[in-house]
Queue: 2 jobs
Job 1
Amino acid sequence: MRATHVHALYVHGTGRVRALEAHVKVAAMVAFVLAVVATPREAFWAFGIQAVLLIGAAAAARIPAGFLLRRLVVLIPFVLFALFLPLFGGGPRTQVFGFALSVEGLWGAWTILAKATLGVTASIVMAATTEVPDILLGLDRLRVPRLITAIAGFMIRYLDVTLGEMHRMRIAMMSRGYNPRWIWQNRALANSAGALFIRSYERGERVYQAMAARGYQGQMPVLSRELTRPGSWLQALAFPAFAWMAAVAAIIAT
Amino acid sequence: MHIPDGFINGATSLGAAVVAAGGLGTALRRGNRALKDRQIPLAGLVAAFVFALQMLNFPVAAGTSGHLLGGALAAVLLGPWMGVVVVSVVVIVQALLFADGGVSALGLNITNMGLLTALVGWGAFRLLMTLLPKRTAFVVGASIGAAWLSVVVSSLGFVAAYALGGSGQAPVGTVLGAMTGVHSLIGIGEGLITGAIVAAVLGVRPDLVYGAQKYELAASRRLMPGRMAIGGFVAAGLAVSLALVIFVAPLANSNPDGLERVARDQGFIATAEDSATAESPLADYSVTGVENDRTGTVVAGLIGTILVFLVGAGILMLVGRKRPQPKSEAGP
């Protein structure tokens, strides 16, 4: 449960990738992922170029390889699905190591593995080099509706608070000698889930009142809104630009 | 259920992105009008809850996974439009920060898990409430039913996206059987949690439940259904899942085919030229193969459904024994 702590997303460090403004990085990441998706599946070399670009960015940001691999775990269900495709896919079949595998299924598995891995890695690199509040500010600067960034901000703040409260309630229940484990003991479990919600909500109300008393009007004040350095866009967009060149070359070639 | 990049083709993703942008835009406009300043923290809190709910994952037979969705809970607590916004925010944050769900598939994921769950959940809740007496216990019951339905419909959305533009031509009938079977079970967990939270909030602060505001219910304790009622709900849910697998999955072989055929006739399916074997799905589901396909799908679906139920119950008991958590009723 603690492993999903939001701060675990960020890898501390310095360097050129972290110095880039958040909104520039988010835009570059989205453009890169779109390039990956647009690349035709037959163009192995184009995916190779895109992978090299990503690895370069991760290396420049000094993100440990182990961290990247651990975060890639979110892909596992779809990797399983991809493995299932060649066995059960339709269409003509081909012999691989004595198994009759669906050609279309093999292509499908390859597409999912290649594109999903590149896409996930791109967003991991972005999240690992940008602190969460900066990403939200960056989304604001990219004209994402304020309601969305405001709710996302509260959500991320409440996540840890709620998990902490849940932990304390569990300890309180166990220290009173109650240890519900069966479904017909649901009254205790359901009541804790409900109590957790109400406690968190009433804390939220107090937090809101404290914020309103200090002048909150639906928008967090920005303490230092530095202007985007002119070089930033150029530096950041070079990254998806190469990916797009590979994608376009691959589209023309096939 | 979080679709990654490259899983569904570009044309379908783009179409879903247009739907998602339209739906989310409408929700933002309508929601903003109804939203008081002080409700933003409530929305954020519900989003955090939905996020936590979505961390509970269950394996699905065909190799994908499913999890609780939380859309109906958000809709009942905050209203349909804010419900859409809240679940969409969760999906956006997951894609950008947690790399869960592809950035290019964001439209698909918002449509599936944000729009469908919240709107279907809300619709079912309102429909049930017009039929049921306007009393607290029935509000809880209606949210349980709405939560179950929203999860099943969302899994149908996933199958529809796969049928329109999925990679690799897995038999759509198998995907459908596995997804609806498992999600009608996950729906039980979703229903129980949604009911528990709605009941608890109604018991203490009925003013916070948007869906019940106009009934002017008084705060009252002791709303939780007893042991018999829960057992009945679990048994009914399991029965419906099995019935779905037995009676709906066989029909699946013709349904997505129809969908594909319509899509091809209308010319909005780009896969037709992408996939080298445009003719083969039809060949696959032709009359000669149907008998085998049907029994195969049903047997696979039944085994998968029962397996998931047993695994879920087992996990519930193990988790309950070692580390009782306030949330561990999510097991089934």
Note: Chain A touches chain B through 100 residues (CB under 8 Å).
Job 2
Amino acid sequence: MKLHDIAHGRTGDKGDTSNISVIAYDPAHWPLIRDWMTANRVAAHFETFDVRNIERFELPQLQALNFVIRGALSGGVTRSLAQDAHGKCLASALLEMQVGYED
Amino acid sequence: MSILRIGAGAGFQGDRIAPAVDLAERGKLDYLIFECLGERTIALAQQARSADPSTGYDPLLERRMRAVLPACVRNGTRIVTNMGAANPLAAADCTRAVARDLGLTELKVAAVTGDDVLDRIGKFTLDETGEPAAALADRLVSANAYIGIEGLVAALEAGADVVICGRASDPSLFLAPLVHEFGWARDDWHRLGRGILVGHLLECAAQITGGYFADPGVKDVPDLANIGHPLAEVDSDGNAVITKLEGTGGCVTRATCIEQMLYEIHDPVRYLQPDVVADFSNVNFEEIGPDRVEVSGATGAKATGLLKVSVGYRDGWFGEGQISYAGANCVARGTLAISLVRERLSQRAVGIIEERGELIGVNSVWPSANPSDQIAEVRMRYAARCCDEESAQAIGEEVEALYLSGPAGGGGATKSTREVVAIASSLMPAAEVATTFEMKEVKHEAA
């Protein structure tokens, strides 16, 4: 299934760093999201971006993860040539990720 | 005071004004906060001020003040805002002039200054370049420290009805009234941490009432067109209920609150602020009624003693052009257009530092996307950062020229050019930054 089926999220930015949250709709899906959404898998999902490193934070009481992705924004909103210079679309792009192994 | 009612009038420079007026009129607010200063806004404001010393504050200040001052004065609601941008003193003058024009007979407007550290930034290293700011030489435009609550609280204690600052940390605009009203000690880290959480949840206004949230069929938001701005009911320990006015659109739910709490905070254990390091890692939200969410669990620790400084500098010129292709084979025609522009620019003496070409609808925000042959239309976009203005203009010219000299069926070309003012950041000891305020008053004058 797609992450979008079981989670929602939001993107923010500071300089060249993107901050993407991933939040389970249903606590029952939290263990899958927590275990599947490793920093390495997220890095692979964003492989076409020039990402320097990814930090990952867990908030179990909120069934939420917070990813801090450095180098994702082509230098940041003030000088990036990107159309979406803030990277506001990136949470939606992350929700495209497949979670769990195919049956 | 047992419960303080504090509302968010704006979450960015271009925010909608009507929800702020609604809050001012019906919110029974003690405070209405306007956060209007983005990362780059102050550098652009500084450029404006250099050209004309009477400007440099938020261009919408006058409209916002004219819209909300009558209700705020009538209801005893005090205003705190960073709309002073690069010129809080001129912003206070403007606010006073609006008040007089509205026939208000008494108003105290404080301008808080001290965030401008351009004269001291030279020796401090920039995170992005690893070099001292002085190396930017004449490209340096502005340097502003993210100040905390000190100057804001001092202005409130002096009785200001309206407090206008430039660069301050966004949550500090909300923390200052809480500290002023509840008398929290400056080392009461847990309460300060809770106050920062309230500020952080409210600082983007509609982003916690259902804005930046709707995903049709999955995350639906009722009556989004008439979305209301949020307010918090905060007790003297910093615990709060986030809500919005009855009759407004949008929603305040556990989900909207979690999304906003994690927005731009990076490490939830260490949300660095000028007056405290806030810890949101154990925060929880409970829905206690329709559009009412109780917030608890934030804590805090001693501040780092360092302030973040945003440094604005000129970094070349940006040029861009766009043109649309539709129907059969549109992806191939858009792709051909990009290669034509590249080839033609390479034949001219154009100083390009970096560039990108893309097809909006295919790969402009998500480079890994694969075009489907079902795509009905694309918009070709070519953008470059250049050494000078003339080079940047050449970018849009070559895209526009695709009308006659490009692939079949190109339509709706647009072009633009602007100077790039980039932002870098640095850290400065808080002791180097002294804030102060100046009060400008409207006094009743006997006829």
Note: Chain B has eleven helices and 18 strands.
